[in-house]
Amino acid sequence: MKVTPWEVSGNINYDKLIKDFGVKHLPTQLPKKLQSNILFKRKTIFAHRDFEIILDCIKNRKPFVMMTGLMPSGKFHLGHRVVADQIILYQKLGAKIYLAVADTEAYNSRNPNLEELKKVAIKEYLINYIALGLSTKNLDFYFQSQRSKDGVKSNAYYSLANLASRHATFNEFKSIYGEIDPGKMTSSLLQTADMLHPQLKEFENKPLPTIIPVGIDQDPHLKIARDISQRIKIFKFQQLSSTYHTFLPGLNSGKMSSSDPNSYIALTDSASEVDTKIKKYAFSGGQKSLDEHRKKGGNPNIDVSFIYLKTFFEPNDNKLKKLHDDYSSGKLLTSELKAITVRKINSFLKKHQKKREKAKKQIDKFI
Amino acid sequence: MKVTPWEVSGNINYDKLIKDFGVKHLPTQLPKKLQSNILFKRKTIFAHRDFEIILDCIKNRKPFVMMTGLMPSGKFHLGHRVVADQIILYQKLGAKIYLAVADTEAYNSRNPNLEELKKVAIKEYLINYIALGLSTKNLDFYFQSQRSKDGVKSNAYYSLANLASRHATFNEFKSIYGEIDPGKMTSSLLQTADMLHPQLKEFENKPLPTIIPVGIDQDPHLKIARDISQRIKIFKFQQLSSTYHTFLPGLNSGKMSSSDPNSYIALTDSASEVDTKIKKYAFSGGQKSLDEHRKKGGNPNIDVSFIYLKTFFEPNDNKLKKLHDDYSSGKLLTSELKAITVRKINSFLKKHQKKREKAKKQIDKFI
Known about the structure:
The structure is a homodimer. By secondary structure, chain A is α/β, with parallel strands linked by helices. Chain A contains 17 helices and nine strands. Chain A has helices at about 15-20, 30-35, 40, 50-60, 80-90, 105-110, 115-130, 150-165, 170-175, 180-195, 220-230, 270-280, 290-295, 305-315, 315-330, 335-360, 365; strands at about 1-5, 5-10, 25, 45-50, 65-70, 95-100, 140-145, 210-215, 240-245. Chain A has a seven-stranded mixed sheet, with helices on both faces. Chain A has a two-stranded antiparallel ribbon with strand order 1-2. In chain A, strand 8 (about 210-215), helix 11 and strand 9 form a beta-alpha-beta unit. The two termini of chain A are about 40 Å apart. The interface of A and B includes residues 104, 148, 165, 167 and 168 of A.
């Protein structure tokens, strides 16, 4: 198992990751507003650092910030929806949302065409966020490259990345990241600025609890940002909070990758594309033959269709349990489970794609 | 002897520095426009990298850029004048001038008050530049923190620092700088962006010869920027050129330091301040007693008054030679040499300070 911000491979053991990274299991008691959310309920979000601070804000209606970013490349797919749903959840809970388009990073590491990056950020990401429920209320949607239109703000942001660099050592980067080079280091520092800048006087102007929801592979960025934040003395930063979610498997149960269309369900896929992808590519936990399946039953925990239902598309606990049990017992066949999954996804996408059409008209309000 | 961008100490041996840094002596034949300049004539500017490219531009009236920066701290003193005079020289020779206020760096390393930094940059630096002859023609005077007012340009600049980081290794930084940490590395990368960004499409939009005049201690910044510039493939950068000048000694013959008023002559010092500073503090190459001086003579090469005359205030070669010879022979006393120096400096400052008053009214045209 290898889990770094730049590579995830091998068989993921989340309990070992919790130990290795030094993060904590989520508390068993969560406020109802969170517990009722499917990502918390199904433990897709499974670990945290200092999440109690945010729970206190939610409970006592105190102000807090949620910060996250998007890398504008490829299609917006189910893997991206895990964060998108959390953005919208926290926005509804009253958080001020800081949503960064990581175009400076994308520009330098992937695609040296800022206009194209902007197009992808809007067409693939922003429109889907809006369709999923993002509102303009309490939202600061910004491009890293354009954190600049207001001179003072821009300085504060880039200057913070620069300032952060003065509060860490090479050895620290090496011990936290394992492998590191100047490019990865500047990328890490820019993310530190993304996470901390909402608290600067040019932005929210006070130490403010900030929740950063990430995949567990991103924890090293949090570690560095948290360490640096407490060493900077010219500002007082409230320590960052974070939650960690599991990796949503790609169709073949490996990585869901923007560069392989057969690994993902995009939120713009047609009904027939979804049908083909699930039936043809979705990794199954079922047995090889019908007879064997009836006899031994399938394994829903490794079945990609079941995982998608559990993560997003079957919010009803009793129904999910029945699918789980029937599949395990062999009563439910892989083809039947897949058919249910296709139907559920397509029912969601049909509504979602209508909302996308409406969302297109609202873009101007967001940027 | 220790000569790094962050520390200069010991007895400076320029020939050894030329070898150690791997730079070259200036060509003996320079175009008249340069040779007639006192800094070239007196070999205050003594070494270079790829200066031939710039000589060709000057000779054939081809476009080129001069880039330099200022650290907005303390008073503008004679040490700063070495670069200021070169800015004005190259501007007169037709170069496009890029003049950076290193406020992002100053902000993070010294003074977390941007407004104050801006005040110092204007009151101490810009006004003196204007009084020394800087014009608005072909000038891009910018604040690092504000390389942002135009969104596109700002991205290009900061993004270039980020991009640069992807084209160097930690080992390279270590081998070039000797000692390095994340703060120094980000500072180096921002300077790389300062030096190279004029060639980007958002600025001059072509590979363009660029001369960077620096003190020899700053050469590591050049080395990194030059190496990185040739590795970046998504733009084609013309290799940077640089010249190196000697360190102007402070009054006590050590470092001229903004933090020690008795080490420098500020361009705002009054006539009586100059009188006191030279007579009381200027390190003398003369002998301890009058008798001994008459007998053995003084050493003009280590005499701070003589060095100031040679660097700035006695452009007439014959007159300078006479001072040199008379001082060496013991004919000219330290008190007499100092009196001449005071008179020359005060004659310059009287005119300069009148020009400063006029310059104050022109600031708006420059920023």
